[in-house]
Amino acid sequence: MINPYEIIDRRLSAIEQVLQELRQQNGTQTAPDEVGGIELARQVTRLSAARIYTLVSKRQIPHMKRGNRLTFRRTQLLAWLDEGDRKTMGGLDA
């Protein structure tokens, strides 16, 4: 007699394999959140280093500071940029 848990385990393994293949095909492989310094912030925001330092001093951009080391998380910077999206006005033809 076949153990039902073995059948479930095999099916779950097959599902995990299919999901892994789909992620690789779509390029959505989950990666850990990237943490970096001012260069990461410049790359993500397309702002100058001086502007980023100004926003940091005014606490207007998400950042972390440990001693003299300033760091940023890519996901937080992207979310911060998304907050600035302007809403479109529906029904107006431009």
Automatic annotation (TrEMBL):
GO molecular function: DNA binding
Annotated organism of origin: Spirosoma utsteinense
Annotated keywords: DNA-binding
Name of the molecule in the record: DNA-binding IscR family transcriptional regulator
Domain Helix-turn-helix: 43-83
Pfam families in the record: HTH_17
Matches recorded under InterPro entries: HTH_17
Domain of life: Bacteria
